[in-house]
Design a protein that fits this description.
about 230 residues, mainly alpha, 11 helices, about 80% helix, elongated, disordered N terminus
């Protein structure tokens, strides 16, 4: 039995419709009043949902096809058949929305470098970097390869810019980028900058297999810069 504090429900309150019934009734009347608009909105929502579903199916299919073509291209690339690989990679790179399309551009560039066509490699890499703006790993690889392509073409000034950008990009290839920057500085006769870069390498990568080689390079550059200073 309820205690003395329990609230008694009056007959008037029992006859009063509850909140759910009131809300449902209002929504129904609102729908009836705006029926043509409601139907149009519903139809638009259905069309949008179907379009989105269709687009996702299309993208999934395109991505699958790109992946299959990409696998075939890699077999050719790893076999040293660079011309044949580039034909397949060109078809993959046409899939602009797919990651495979961007990776294909990177392998196209490497194929051109292997065939001693650095200018064509630069074109492919510039397209890659224009497309890829979010993945730091792919951007760093693109910048590092772009630096190598410029360096192979004898354009060390442009190469140094790419190596520096690769060095500033998060990723596992900072070591290679730093060495590229040092090489290009030495090639451009910026000896102090080259020396600083090699010293930075020794400080940052003490366990590297190239420590002995870089140490000798540092001593050589220190001797050259000392001689230049004495002549002045």
């Amino acid at each position: 039995m309820d205690g003395p504090s329990a609230k008694k429900i009056t007959r008037k309150e029992l006859r009063r419709p509850d909140a759910f019934i009131i809300l449902t009734s209002r929504l129904f009347h609102l729908y009836q009043h705006h029926k043509p608009l409601s139907i149009a909105v519903a139809a638009l929502f259905i069309v949008f949902s179907l379009s989105l579903w269709g687009w996702n199916l299309y993208r999934a299919r395109q991505d699958r096809l790109a992946g299959q073509e990409y696998s075939r291209a890699l077999v050719l690339y790893r076999s040293g058949k660079y011309r044949e690989a580039m034909d397949a990679l060109a078809r993959v790179s046409a899939h602009r929305s797919s990651l495979y399309g961007r990776l294909a551009l990177l392998y196209q560039a490497n194929s051109h470098i292997a065939l001693n066509e650095p200018a064509r490699a630069v074109t492919a890499l510039e397209e890659l970097l224009g497309r890829e703006r979010t993945d730091p790993l792919l951007r760093q690889l693109g910048l590092l390869t772009l630096g190598s392509a410029h360096e192979k073409a004898g354009q060390c000034k442009e190469a140094a810019v790419s190596f520096t950008l690769a060095l500033k990009t998060e990723g596992p290839f900072k070591e290679e980028a730093l060495l590229g920057k040092a090489r290009c500085a030495a090639e451009e006769r910026n000896l102090q900058e080259a020396l600083n870069s090699y010293k930075e390498y020794l400080a940052n990568y003490p366990g590297s297999e190239r420590i002995h080689e870089i140490s000798l390079r540092v001593k050589e550059l220190e001797g050259t810069t000392r001689e230049s200073a004495e002549k002045k």
